[in-house]
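Field notebook, page 238. I keep forgetting to write these up properly, so this time I am using the form the group agreed on. The chain and the ligand, pyridoxal-5'-phosphate, are recorded exactly as supplied. Prediction of the bound pose follows.
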Amino acid sequence: MIKDNLERIRDRVEAACRRSGRSSGEVRIVAVAKNRTVQEIQAVIFAGITDIAENRMQEALLHNRELSERGDGLRATGQGRGTMTRHFIGHLQTNKAKDAVELFDLIHSVDSVRLAQELAVHAKRLGKVQDILLQVNTSGEKQKFGVTAGEAEGMLAEIAQLRHVRTQGLMTIAPIVDDPGQAKMFFRVLRQLRDDVCGRRADCGLSILSMGMSDDFEAAVEEGATMIRIGRAIFEEA
Ligand SMILES: *Cc1c(COP(=O)(O)O)cnc(C)c1O
């Protein structure tokens, strides 16, 4: 089932790329492992996925331990498979920064300078440069994490001062809408923000746009997503 689902998703990504004049090689499919068993995670790796995302630290630690016991640990630093990229996409509290730096290659959900500073402290200790994305709340919904589009540029400049953290791009979560086409305006806000910042600073380094989930990834791809975060469409019956 996972294999068939992935094939369908890849076809849909390719079609969305064709519609928007992009190459499907520009879009990475990140499999979201929240609420999944390690058997499911292994199945998705077996089906060719190289990017795995976790949403909660506690579950991430559990998955990592269980995968390690199967000789398939996915630790970002040191042991584990060099070919896997581990992502963290959930809300991150500063007291979990150490675990996050130890476990993840790319943290999508940085939403304060304070958190970036904390990540930098632990990254320095590990002799690592932590790759991050700045999470932007493009819809302004109160219950959503992320900085406002207006705050983003100033924060990016502050975070750029930290030598052990490197901002690779921006992330957003679109609101739930009836028609996925309606999500486009939020994805457009993120892309526009990236284009504005990079227009003023050639070395902005913001190559990643992490946007789009099971219900709206085609709209996100059409608006320039380079990473889509997919859970249900991969793991559940179509
Ligand atoms: C759960 C989750 C996803 C994946 O959602 P699906 O609708 O299952 O594809 C993507 N991004 C974040 C931040 C999530 O928490």
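OBSERVATIONS:
- The beta strands are 28-32, 51-54, 85-88, 106-110, 130-135, 165-171, 208-210, 227-230.
- The chain is about 40% helix and 15% strand.
FOLLOW-UP: compare against the apo run.
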